[in-house]
TrEMBL record:
Pfam family, one: ABC_tran
Residue intervals of the ABC transporter domain: 5-254
Name the record gives this protein: Oligopeptide/dipeptide ABC transporter ATP-binding protein
NCBIfam families, alphabetized: oligo_HPY
One MF annotation (Gene Ontology) recorded for this entry: ATP binding
CDD domains cross-referenced by the UniProt entry: ABC_NikE_OppD_transporters
Amino acid sequence: MNPVLDVRDLRVEFPTAAGALGVVDGVSFDVGPGETVALVGESGSGKSVSSLAVLGLLGRGRIAGGSVSFRGEEIAGAGPERLRRLRGAEIAMVFQNPMSALDPLFSVGDQVVEAIRVHRPVGRAQARERAVELLREVGLPDPERRMRSYPHELSGGQQQRVGVAMALACDPELLIADEPTTALDVTVEAQILALMRRLQREHGAALLLITHDMSVVARMADRVVVMYAGQVVERGTVAEVLSAPTHPYTRALIGSVPTVHTGRDELLTVIPGSVPNPADVPDGCRFHPRCPQAVERCRTEVPPVVRTGEGRISRCWLAEDAGRVPAPTGAPGTGAR
Ligand code: SF4
């Protein structure tokens, strides 16, 4: 089946006083109809920038190469009018902080009605009816009354439910959720994730989920794309990657998630150091200063993208040393399918 979203060899740059700075370097992934794909990595890995590039929301940044295909249409470099029609109607976004995504000066009802009417030729009464229905669908109690509430009158979880309602207002084919539960406490997080999963299935939308949390990946996604320092370092199905990760960074991310078996006094595994500044990425493997398995070659030679299984890749010398097949050339930056 053709993917809803197909990103290939994407490169994104931001202008700086010292010249253009590449923050996304040859990233490839796709999302099929009704599928959930997670982009995972620490802050600075390039996952959010990659997703914002899809919607042309890069601010001063620009797509410097590669392609972004939505339902077969190239949208990298699409004009402002096409992007405006895409956003909300065909591709919708759920943001990390619902309070900053909602306008504090307008009631919840007005904002959901507006989200519908911007893209659908319906009258105010019909849009209002649909808005009440959506608020009910996302589990807000007494939706008629909530229509008159202002964002500050809602809890964080309720605000994010409104964010999800607005994203689904026009039945988009692709939903992009950028750390949608980071600002919420753990019980509300579970509720919002369950809500998104249910609504995604009911609406049949594809979901691109941006997260730093492997436990969220395990609960939500079908496939996972692990990013580090602007590149994809591992990709595969969630079941395979979580049970048998081939890249040391993926293993470290998995190891840093506390489990129910983690004792009260037990220290969590941490990944030493931090993601490199894009202006100063290390030679060789970008992960080598933090990698517990780094060898001399990792410090000087860029590791190849290696196919580690059906639909799986890993950017690591260990994967190649294990006899895995290098991904085809012409698909740099993990373009191998
Ligand atoms: Fe670690 Fe070397 Fe693999 Fe990089 S290439 S992840 S440094 S083992």
